[in-house]
From TrEMBL, chain A:
One Pfam entry name: POR_N
Listed InterPro entries: 2-oxoacid/accept_OxRdtase_asu, Pyruvate:ferred/Flavod_OxRd, Pyrv/ketoisovalerate_OxRed_cat, Pyrv_Fd/Flavodoxin_OxRdtase_N, Pyrv_flavodox_OxRed_cen, THDP-binding, Transketo_C/PFOR_II
CDD domains documented for this protein: TPP_PYR_PFOR_IOR-alpha_like (cd07034)
One annotated GO molecular function: oxidoreductase activity, acting on the aldehyde or oxo group of donors
Coiled coil: none
Domain Pyruvate flavodoxin/ferredoxin oxidoreductase pyrimidine binding per the UniProt entry, residue ranges: 265-473
Domain of life: Bacteria
GO biological process: response to oxidative stress
Protein name: 2-oxoglutarate ferredoxin oxidoreductase subunit alpha
Keywords: Oxidoreductase
Limits of the Pyruvate/ketoisovalerate oxidoreductase catalytic domain: 26-216
UniProtKB/TrEMBL annotation, chain B:
PANTHER family, A to Z: 2-OXOGLUTARATE OXIDOREDUCTASE SUBUNIT KORB (PTHR48084:SF4), 2-OXOGLUTARATE OXIDOREDUCTASE SUBUNIT KORB-RELATED (PTHR48084)
Pfam families, per the entry: TPP_enzyme_C
An MF annotation (GO) of this entry: thiamine pyrophosphate binding
CDD domains for the chain: TPP_OGFOR
One record GO biological process: cellular respiration
Residue span(s) of domain Thiamine pyrophosphate enzyme TPP-binding: 53-200
Keyword annotations: Oxidoreductase
Keyword Oxidoreductase: yes
The protein's name in its UniProt record: 2-oxoglutarate ferredoxin oxidoreductase subunit beta
Source superkingdom: Bacteria
Amino acid sequence: MYLTMMQKTKVIEREEVVVRFSGDSGDGMQLTGSLFSNTSAVYGNDISTFPDFPSEIRAPQGTIGGVSGFQVHIGSGDVHTPGDQTDVLVAMNPAALKANGKFMKPGGILIVDIDSFDEKSIVKAGYQTEDPLAEEHLGDYYVIKVPITSLTKESLKEMGLDAKSILRSKNMFALGLVCWLFNRPLEYTQTYIRNKFAKKPQIVDANLKVLQDGYDYGMILEAVTPSYHIQPADIEKGFYRNLNGNTAVAWGFIAAAEKSGLELFLGSYPITPATEILQELSGRKDLGVKVFQAEDEIAGICSALGASFAGRLALTTTSGPGFALKAEAIGLAVMAELPLVIVDVQRGGPSTGLPTKTEQSDLFQALYGRNGESPAVVIVASTPVNCFDYAYMAAKIAVEHMTPVILLTDGFLANGTQPWRIPDLSEFPAIVPPLVHQKKDGWYAYARDAESLVRGWAVPGTPGLQHRIGGLEKDYFTGALSHDGPNHQKMVDTREAKVQKIADSLPPLEILGNEDADLLVIGWGGTFGHLHTAVARLNEQGYRVAQAHFHYINPMPLNTYEVLKRYKKIVVCELNLGQLAGYLRMKFPDIQYAQFNKVQGLPFTSAELVDNFKKMLED
Amino acid sequence: MQEASALTYTDFKSNQSVKWCPGCGDHAILNSVQKAMAELGYSQEEVAVISGIGCSSRFPYYMNAYGFHTIHGRASAVATGVKIANPELKVWQITGDGDALAIGGNHFIHAVRRNIDLNIILFNNQIYGLTKGQYSPTSKKGFVSKTSPFGTIENPFRPGELTIGARGHFFARTIDKELKLTVEVLKEAAKFSGASVVEVLQNCVIYNDRTHEVLTEKGFKEERTIVLRHGQPMLFGKDNDKGLMLDGLNLKVVKLGDNGITEKDILVHDAMNPDPSLHLKLANMEYPDYPVAMGVIRAVPYATYNAELVEQIEAVQAKSKIKSFKDLVFSGDVWEVK
Ligand SMILES: Cc1ncc(C[n+]2csc(CCOP(=O)(O)OP(=O)(O)O)c2C)c(N)n1
Ligand code: SF4
Ligand SMILES: [Mg+2]
C-alpha cells in the first residue's frame, strides 16, 4: 500500500544488486539478511547469499573480530554468486563499517546506525580519527545516517519492554528500512515474526511495530535517497524454497535412501563447516535416518563402514582435518569394495587453518591421501543447490559400483543459499544396489560383474552367503587371502579399472560461454559462479572465452582430453596453489596450463578474474 | 530357529586352514566360540564377527559366519556401526590387548560406555603377537620385550578396571585352556544385552609363553583362581575351603574354620549389583595376594544404545507429519513460481 502512495525521487531500475548487512554478532544480522533474501526470493528474484561469521563465538563486542555479516545478491536474471562488491551496506556500528567499507561499490548506499558511532566505539573499531566516515573516503556514496537505536527506543517506549528486548529489535528497524529501499513487501517478515514468537505476543507486537516504523522512516528519506527496483527473474515454473549447501547435501542422501530403498546411516563427528549436515540428519529420525555421533572421525567412518557391511546406505561427513583422520578407513573401503560416501566440506588448511573460511584445500588429499594404490571416486558440487544433486549421485555411484565416493563441497557452498526448485524424485535416476539374495553355483564374495567389474553385495543375515572380507589382499578367483605377487597386480589393476569404468556413465564435460574461444577457463567446485560471471562478462565485452567446470574428477568425463585439446590457452583457476592443474598435467601432459590461484579464505571476485583473463587474452 | 538348533560347532568352521602358531591359545578360543554359538542355537547367517588387526584378529576367517577383518584398533567402531545398522545381528568383536587397549582404546571405552550390544572378546596375551613381540598396554611393569629390553616403565591397564571405569555393565574373565569355563562365560556374554567384555587370558607360545601359567598349573589353579558365579558364595581352593570376605573396605582371603569362619561369613557374588565398587575389587584381584577372579564378575542389565535408538526413531515417527522426502522438502517456506 505504501508503494502506491509513495512518490519517490529516484527509482533506479537494476538487474542486480548486492546488499550486505553487518553488525555485532549479537545484532541479529544473519536473521535480518536471510529474511531479506527470502523476501526477495518469494518476490521472484534469483538470489545467492553468503554469510560471513566471526570465527570466535564470543568475540568482544564492538571489535572487528566480532563483526557478523550477511551478503545477498538479488537479480532479475540468473544470479551465480553472492557478488564481489556491495551496492548497499548496512553497518550497525563502526566496527562493521571498518570491516566492510572496503567491499563497497562506488556510488552505493551506506546506511549506518549513527547512534553507535560514539567515541568509544570508534576507537574500539580501530579508527584513527573521530570521523570514520571521512576516513573511509566515502565521497561518492549516499551515506544515510539513521539514529536506529534511538528511533527503536522511541518506537517501543510505550510497550513496557525491558531495555535488552528493545535493543534486540534494532535489526527489524534496519530491515524495514531496507525493504522500503527495495520496494519489498513486509508480509514475509511479518509472518515470520508471528510464527517465531507465537508464544510471546508482546515481542510480536514490538517487532512488527519497529519493522513498520523502519519502513515508514524511508519515506522521510525519499527526497534525498534513490531506491531500487529489480524485476522478478525469469525462472522455471515450480515450487521453490531456499536451500544452503549443507542442507542440500543432507537432503540429497535422504532422497537417495528413499529412491534406493536403503536405510540411511551417518557416522560423524562435529567439525566446522560440515557440522550442519550432521545436525540436519540427526533431526531426521522421522525419516528413519540413523545417525551416530562418534567419538572421533575415525569412529565416524568406521561405524559407517560397518553399516555399509550390514547393507545400509552409509555416509560420513567432515572437513579437512577430520578427512585426514579417515584415510586408513577409506583404504579399507577400497579394499573391501564396500559402498561408502565421504563428504568433505573443505575449509582453509593446513592443520586447523581457517575453520570458518573457504578453500579448495583437499583435492590432493581426496585423490592421493592414502597408502597403496587406493582409487576412490571423487565428485564435486559447484553451487549450494547442486550439492543436492551431487550428493544423490555420490550415493548412486557408491552403491551401484561398490566403492567409496568422496564428495567435496566447501565452506562457501555449505553456508551459501540459493532458491531451489523442489524436484520430484521421479526426475532422478534409479539407484539399484547389486544385492545378492541367493547363493548361486560358484558364488563367492568377490565374484564380479564381467562388464562393470562390480562385486555383489551379500548382506549379513542372508542365509547361505556367509563370507569374510577385510583389508588383506584376496585371491581374484576365490576371494581367499592371497600374498601372491601376480594376483596382487591383477587385483590392483581390477580395482582401478572398476573405478575408471564409471566414466562410461558420466555426462560429458560441457563447454559454456563461447565454444569458439581464445581462452578456456577451467575450474572445479564452488568457484563455478564467480568463474561463470567473469566469463559471461568478457563475452559481453566482445572477448571470446569458454568455460569448462569439473564435477567428476576421478574418473574424469571421457571427453576431457578432447575438450582441452581444442584450446590454445587454458587457465586453471583454483582457491589453492594448483591442485587440479597438477592433476591435469599428470593426466594430459602434452597440454599447456596457465594457473590463477588464490588462498585468502575468500572466494574469487568476478572482477579480479575478469582483469586476469583480459591480461591473458592480450598476452 | 529349529534348523539353527541343529547346528554343531563344526558348522561354524570355515573352509580356511587355521594359521596360528601350533600351541597358540587362539586355537582353543576359536573352538570355544564355535561351541558356544552352537549351544546358543545361532544360525550362521545371523552372526557377524568383526575384528581389528593382530594375530587374534585373524579369527573371522576361520568362522563360517559373516566376517569383517578391519583395521588396527577400529573393531569396536566398525562393530558399533554393524549393530546399530542391523540390531538383529549377533555381533561379536574379536580384538587383542593392543588392538582394543592401545590404538583402539578410545573406541573401546566408548562402545562400552554406550552399551552397544556387542560381545567383545579381548584376547589378552600381554604382547603384540603379530608384530613379533613388543610390549603391550597390559604387559606388567618391568616386562622385557623387544621394545623394552630393560623392562617397561609404564603401568599396565587392567581390562576389568577399564571396562568398569568406562561404565561397563558386563565384564567376565576366562582363560584359553579352560574350554568349559570359556564356553560358559561366552554364552553368558552373548545372552547379556549390552556391551559384554570378556577378557580371555591367552597364551602366546612364541613371544610371551606361559605368562598366565601360574593360573593354569596343574594342582595349583584352584588355589590361584576363583570362579565367580552369581548367587554363589565366593569359595575357592582344591577343597573349596577358602573364601573371600570384606575386611573394612578391602577384600580378604580367609580359610573356613579359621577363627570360627563358616560359609555364612563368605561373600555371596552379586553380579547384578549396579554399584561397581565390589566388582572393581574382584576384577582387580591379582595373584599372589589374591586368587584371580574368573567367570562373570559384573552383569547389570541396562538399556542398550541400539535399542534406544530404534525406540526413539519409532517415537518420533509416530508423531511427525514428515513421512517422506516429499513431506520434508515441502515443510517450511515454499513458494510457487507460475
Ligand atoms: C595402523 C597400524 N599400526 C600398526 C600396525 C601394526 N600392528 C599390527 S597388529 C599390532 C599389534 C597387535 O597386538 P594385539 O592387538 O595384542 O594382537 P595379537 O597379535 O597379540 O593377537 C600392530 C602394532 C597396523 N597393522 N596398523
Ligand atoms: S605369535 Fe603368538 S599370538 Fe600370534 S599366533 Fe603365534 S602364538 Fe599366537
Ligand atoms: Mg596381544
